[in-house]
Design goal:
The chain has 457 residues and is mostly beta strands. The strands form five sheets. Strands 1, 4, 8, 9, 12 and 13 form a six-stranded mixed β-sheet that branches.
């Protein structure tokens, strides 16, 4: 996944990853799928209808339902029963639901982990033979909006011409520019990316380009360590075969959303993001072949607010593109940092590397000199692009310095490593690397009196 180096002050993040198999399916191959009905049960054992279904409905069926990214549905007893042992295995070892932040640092609004009590219910249910129980005890199934999680969008921007994904081969990142045709500024309260065909879409980035770019408030500045090699100077279109995006001087990342299990971006009450009249959207899409030629026409949907919010949300980034990861090295660290020149409120952080990324640590040094870890991801997983949303937004006074350290494994021991014999530099493609953290934030001094949406800003 790539984030623009230029124009980052106008960014707003979303990643779409759609062709990844959920690890539950891996257990079926090892003999963990079970029969359709248990032979016998104990009277006090948990049942699917009364005890297990509420856990699955709350934590799992957003993805594990027809038409979504997971490879099997868990909405009904008949669907879940064959996977009982696999569910227990993946829940017990923490693979499911996917969550990679260290619980010792920070509390997160979108923490997907099950409680110990919920894990125990599933474990005892499987040990008892996975009984169904009385169907009358089954709670109402959760109601999901067909197609769009945010309900019907006010504006849908879709690729004008489907891209023909071949059956085999490696496809360079593709870029598709589509006008929004907005005639007035709009405030966005929610937005969502949908793949045209999830089976061939690995992820989507959406950029926005405005006819006129008003210089935003500079809230923080790079504070990277000195030195480090610059990225290669070769034209990346020649180096990787990629088509190139529009000039970065007039675009910013709008969204990077819909990794498996990651909900669409919905702003908290009183907050929103500005989408200007005449905006043009650019989709950057990473396609993966699956043995069958298929067309894709991905899209983004917007829900608009009726009034200007009191708080305008921005997305920016802390990144360091000046690095070289030596061939064969198992633990190579790259640091990035920013210093805050305004009082800000941070809502979420999205650490991002590619296939060699191993772990992350984010620290904040406050104006009084004290340093604390605000986010740690000890086992980073490229397949799950997560924005870690603070349960209580983090207030950051000017004078603070935030740093991140990413650890990379460029050795042959890394099974995901594309080539352990090559030095690695910053680049768009997954066989290259990044050191990037998306920051969703607001500037405290920008809080405004609510006004009508159509008013020019």
């Amino acid at each position: 996944m790539t984030r623009a180096i230029a124009g980052l002050s106008a960014v707003f993040g979303i990643v779409l990853v759609g062709s990844l198999a959920v690890p539950l399916a891996q257990s079926q191959a090892t003999g963990t799928a079970t029969a359709s009905r248990p032979a016998q049960t104990t009277s006090n054992a948990p049942t699917f209808s009364k005890d297990v279904a509420p856990v699955l409905y709350e934590h799992c069926t957003t993805c594990h339902r027809p038409g979504e990214v997971a490879p099997m549905s868990l909405l009904t007893y008949e669907e879940a029963r064959p996977w009982a042992r696999a569910i227990r295995e993946n829940v017990t070892n923490g693979t499911m639901p996917p969550w990679h932040a260290d619980p010792a640092h920070g509390k997160w609004k979108n923490d997907r982990r099950l409680s110990d009590a919920e894990k125990d219910v599933i474990s005892r249910w499987v040990a008892a033979g996975a009984p169904e129980g009385d169907p009358k005890d089954l709670p109402a199934k959760p109601v999901y909006t067909a197609g769009w999680t945010i309900a019907q969008p006010d504006l849908i921007v879709k690729m004008e011409t489907p891209f023909e994904v071949p059956a085999t081969g490696t496809i360079p990142y593709q870029y598709f520019e589509v006008p929004t045709n907005l005639t007035e500024d709009k405030w966005v309260e929610a937005l969502e990316v949908r793949a045209g065909d999830r089976s061939v879409v690995h992820h989507v980035l959406v950029y926005v380009r405005f006819p006129e770019m008003t210089a935003p408030t500079v809230a923080f500045r790079p504070a990277n360590p000195p030195g480090g090699p610059a990225p290669p100077r070769e034209d990346l279109s020649q180096l990787t075969g990629s088509s190139r995006p529009p000039s970065p001087a007039r675009r910013g990342l709008l969204m990077t959303q819909v990794a498996p299990g990651t909900p669409p971006l919905v702003f908290a009450p009183g907050t929103g993001m500005l989408l200007r009249a005449g905006s043009v959207v650019t989709f950057q899409i990473h396609y993966t072949t699956n043995g069958k030629a298929t067309p894709d026409a991905s899209m983004i949907g917007f829900k608009f607010m009726k009034e200007r919010p009191a708080i305008e949300v921005h997305t920016g980034a802390m990144l360091n593109p000046r690095f070289m990861i030596p061939a064969g090295v198992e633990n190579h660290s790259v640091e990035a940092g920013v210093s805050f020149v305004e009082d800000v409120t941070i809502y979420g952080l999205t650490p991002h590397t590619h296939l060699r990324g191993k772990s992350w640590q984010h620290t904040m040094t406050w104006p009084d000199g004290k340093t604390e870890t605000i986010l740690a991801v000890p086992k980073y997983d490229f397949d799950w692009q997560t924005e870690y949303v603070f349960a209580t937004p983090l207030r950051v006074p000017k004078g603070s310095v935030m740093k991140s350290v990413a650890i990379y494994d460029n050795s042959k021991n890394n099974k995901s490593n594309p080539d352990a014999t090559k030095d690695v530099f910053w680049g768009d493609q997954t066989w290259e690397e990044m050191q990037y953290t998306g920051i969703t934030y607001s500037v405290d001094k920008e809080r405004a009196t609510t006004t009508a949406v159509g008013q020019k800003q």
